[in-house]
């Protein structure tokens, strides 16, 4: 079946990604206020109450800020691992028992017509995961909040029809940022922090080798990156490797502060 993907918001100030396959509609994360996410969904013609679930990657506020509100207001089930639920306790408010769903990150499952394949990611959270979502032979993967692009992540997303890949920061901008403490800088730069533009560009080459042909750069920092810098870093590295942009690989951007593009992935295409 065809799949539709839209990064409603992707960045250090909040994340919410819309995915549809067949009649099933999902959010990956709800890290903006519920009202903001609802308005973004309306812009792409989706009523919030038609969502079949919210898949949570981890408990940091930029991924869960609106999850509780949307769950309670629209009766949307929320999916997270047991450890993530424990870490979210007190952050999302009361979740009705019937809407609290738990999964094992090593086990695939279905939400309606969408196959969900979670996988562990290297990030400083209780039990962080990325997702690969399947609709027939089409699949969309999200790989953000990565301290490094591990072999396990590569194996989980290899050959996806589309990948949202983190391009969080420029290391020089981060190190020169007077508003960030040394501790915070080291956390972001660390092995369980966030993927830099340069690390993203190298990961992108591995994705292409696995069969990926469409990558969206996401989770850009508002203070330590620029959209044009992130895009240029990956495009230049791809061209250095002999890839033809627009033919061997398409690279787009997801935005921090506005609704991104709406992508339709055709089964069998």
Molecular structure report:
This protein is α/β, with parallel strands linked by helices and 269 residues long. It has a single domain, classed as Ribonuclease Z/Hydroxyacylglutathione hydrolase-like (Metallo-beta-lactamase, Chain A), CATH 3.60.15. The chain has 9 helices and 14 strands. The strands form 2 sheets. Strands 6-5-4-3-2-1-14 form a 7-stranded mixed sheet. A 7-stranded mixed sheet has the order 7-8-9-10-11-12-13. Helix 8 packs across helix 9. The model has no long low-confidence stretch (mean pLDDT 96).
Summarize the structure.
With 269 residues, the protein is α/β, with parallel strands linked by helices.
- Topology as a string of helices (H) and strands (E): EEEHEHHEHEEEEEHEHHHEHEE
Oligomer: single chain
Write down the Rg. 17 Å
The residue ranges in which pLDDT falls below 50 over 5 or more consecutive positions are none
Fold-level CATH name: Metallo-beta-lactamase, Chain A
**How would you characterize the largest beta sheet?**
7 strands, mixed
Helix content: 25-40%
Beta-strand level of the residues, as a percent range?
A: 15-25%
**Mean model confidence by pLDDT:** 96
Question: Tell me, what's the shape?
Answer: globular
Layout of SSEs?
Elements: E1 3-9, E2 16-21, E3 24-28, H1 34-43, E4 53-55, H2 61-64, H3 67-74, E5 78-80, H4 82-88, E6 100-102, E7 109-111, E8 114-120, E9 129-135, E10 138-143, H5 151-157, E11 162-166, H6 171-176, H7 182-189, H8 197-210, E12 214-218, H9 227-240, E13 250-253, E14 263-265
Parallel strand pairs: 3-4, 4-5, 5-6, 10-11, 11-12, 12-13
Antiparallel strand pairs: 1-2, 1-14, 2-3, 7-8, 8-9, 9-10
């Amino acid at each position: 079946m065809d799949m539709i993907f839209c990064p409603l918001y992707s960045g250090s100030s909040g994340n919410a990604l819309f995915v549809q396959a067949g009649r099933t509609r999902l959010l990956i994360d709800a890290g903006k206020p519920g009202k903001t996410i609802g308005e973004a969904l309306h812009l792409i013609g989706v009523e919030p109450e038609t969502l079949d679930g919210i898949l949570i990657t981890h408990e940091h506020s930029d991924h869960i800020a609106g999850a509780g509100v949307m769950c309670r207001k629209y009766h949307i089930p929320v999916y997270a691992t047991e450890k993530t639920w424990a870490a979210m306790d007190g952050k999302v408010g009361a979740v009705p028992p019937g809407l609290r769903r738990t999964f094992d990150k090593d086990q695939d499952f279905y939400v309606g017509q969408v196959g969900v394949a979670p996988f562990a990611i290297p990030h400083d959270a209780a039990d962080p995961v990325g997702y690969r979502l399947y609709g027939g032979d089409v699949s969309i993967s999200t790989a953000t909040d990565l301290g490094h692009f591990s072999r396990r992540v590569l194996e989980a997303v290899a050959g996806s029809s589309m990948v949202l890949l983190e391009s969080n920061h420029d290391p020089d901008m981060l190190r020169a940022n007077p508003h960030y403490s040394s501790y915070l800088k080291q956390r972001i730069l660390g092995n369980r922090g966030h993927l830099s533009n340069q690390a993203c560009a190298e990961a992108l080459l591995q994705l292409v080798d696995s069969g990926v042909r469409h990558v969206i750069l996401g989770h850009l920092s508002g203070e330590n990156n620029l959209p044009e810098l992130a895009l240029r870093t990956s495009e230049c590295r791809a061209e250095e490797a002999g890839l033809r942009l627009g033919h061997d690989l398409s690279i787009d951007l997801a935005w921090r502060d506005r609704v991104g593009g709406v992508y339709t992935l055709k089964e069998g295409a």
